[in-house]
């Protein structure tokens, strides 16, 4: 299970390492002690939030401003937690770490695995925990390398931030391919296109989340997969190795 979880997180590794390096290089420009950057990767563990932190520290923002901005930026993680709470409520103490480490990419990998792999509850608990741990390690490693490069070699990270966009697009397509119910994806796609045209860019994410949740609640019965549809969906083949 440990090796299988590692293989499942390799796409995240390919995105987190360069993006973590980009964050580390930017953080080194603040001329703060290097270990503060490592601590932020360990304790905050949110890519967008850490990039926002660097921007706010650069303009000497106050603690209250940083707290409010970070909360609004990362409020989507609350919805990720709600989406998997039923799956992990029977887990041991490790479920709290899983909730802490529930990034966009980790959530996508966990949901993809749930759609394609028929794990026992114990196997699922270990799988969720290992995936979260591996993703966390990748991010901390990338940040550490970036801080080292920024302080010693003066690298510039322009363009590297697109790695996370590409990574999340790949994970979303994989989840779409393996999902029994594709209606939420189509709703999100239409909502995203309309949002780009109609919503203010500064509030695009939060408004899109609110609209998406509202639509899912209103059309819950139509969106849900019926038992007949679920039975007709081809079951994935499982490997014997654990």
Provide a brief overview of the structure:
The chain has 242 residues and is an all-alpha fold. It is 76% helix and 0% strand.
Descriptive report:
This protein is mostly helical and 242 residues long. The protein is 76% helix and 0% strand. It has 14 helices and no strands. The chain starts with a helix and ends in a 10-residue tail after the last helix. 24% of the residues are buried. The C terminus is likely disordered.
Keywords:
disordered C terminus; 242 residues; mainly alpha
Please write out the topology.
Elements lengths: L1 H7 L1 H19 L5 H10 L3 H12 L4 H12 L1 H13 L5 H7 L3 H13 L4 H32 L9 H17 L4 H16 L5 H15 L1 H4 L3 H6 L10
* CA gyration radius, whole angstroms: 19 Å
Helix and strand content put the structural class at mainly alpha
How far apart the termini lie comes to 5 Å
The secondary-structure element order is HHHHHHHHHHHHHH
Helical content (DSSP H or I, runs of 4+)? over 70%
Strand content: under 5%
What's the overall average pLDDT, rounded?
78
How many separate helices? Answer: 14
Largest sheet: none
Q: Specify the overall morphology.
A: globular
How many individual β-strands? 0
Poorly predicted runs of 5 or more residues: 226-242
């Amino acid at each position: 299970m440990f090796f299988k979880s590692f293989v499942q997180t390799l796409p995240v590794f390919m995105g987190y390492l360069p993006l973590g390096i980009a964050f580390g290089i930017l953080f080194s420009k603040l001329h703060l002690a290097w270990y503060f950057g490592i601590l932020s990767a360990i304790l905050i563990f949110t890519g967008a939030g850490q990039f926002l932190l660097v921007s706010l520290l650069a303009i000497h923002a106050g603690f209250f401003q940083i707290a409010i901005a970070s909360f609004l930026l990362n409020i989507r993680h609350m919805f990720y937690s709600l989406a998997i709470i039923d799956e992990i409520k029977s887990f041991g103490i490790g479920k709290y770490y899983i909730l802490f480490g529930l990034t966009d990419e980790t959530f996508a990998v966990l949901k993809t695995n749930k759609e394609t792999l028929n794990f026992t509850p114990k196997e699922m608990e270990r799988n969720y925990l290992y995936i979260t741990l591996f993703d966390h390690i990748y991010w901390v490693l990338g940040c550490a390398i970036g801080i080292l490069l920024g302080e010693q070699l003066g690298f510039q990270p322009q363009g590297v931030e697109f790695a996370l966009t590409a990574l999340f697009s790949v994970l979303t397509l994989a989840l779409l391919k393996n999902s029994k119910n594709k209606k939420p994806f189509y709703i999100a796609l239409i909502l995203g296109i309309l949002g780009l045209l109609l919503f203010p860019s500064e509030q695009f994410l939060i408004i899109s989340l609110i609209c998406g949740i509202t639509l899912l609640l209103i059309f819950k019965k139509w969106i849900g997969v019926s038992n007949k549809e679920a039975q007709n969906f081809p079951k994935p083949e499982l490997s014997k190795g654990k």
